[in-house]
Write a structure and sequence with these properties.
Blueprint lengths: L1 E4 L2 E3 L4 E6 L7 H5 L3 E7 L8 H10 L9 E6 L5 H19 L13 H29 L1
Length: 142
Amino acid sequence: MINIKKGLEVPENELVFTASGAGGPGGQHVNKSSTRVTLWFDVKNSPSLSKKQKKLISEKLSTRINKAGVLHISARKHRSQAANREQAVEKFIQLLGEALKQPPERKRTRPPQRAKKIRLEEKKRRARKKQLRSKLRNGQND
């Protein structure tokens, strides 16, 4: 079981791992070994997620989820497949944790009386300025 956050665990059998050749420097080792690991997680059909959680994940991680509703995470930082597999799982835990975080509810506050007063004074000043402009224009047209 992979613990994502308090109250949410995803069984490892829901994760699918594939290995492929990782690009970049590394010489012969990178050419002959499949060290890049891609983790696949079917968000849409996962029995361990609620509908609300699925919706949140789909919205927040939409760039990482394909049309079939499968989340994919790649890891290729390390030279070994096992280390990249661990890194992919860590990324998975972090991404799901972030996606499922609820933003704190905003506490409604009133603007200070001084701020209200300043705003109204500014408003009056602008109105006066515009009034003067219109009188000048009308006076020139006569």
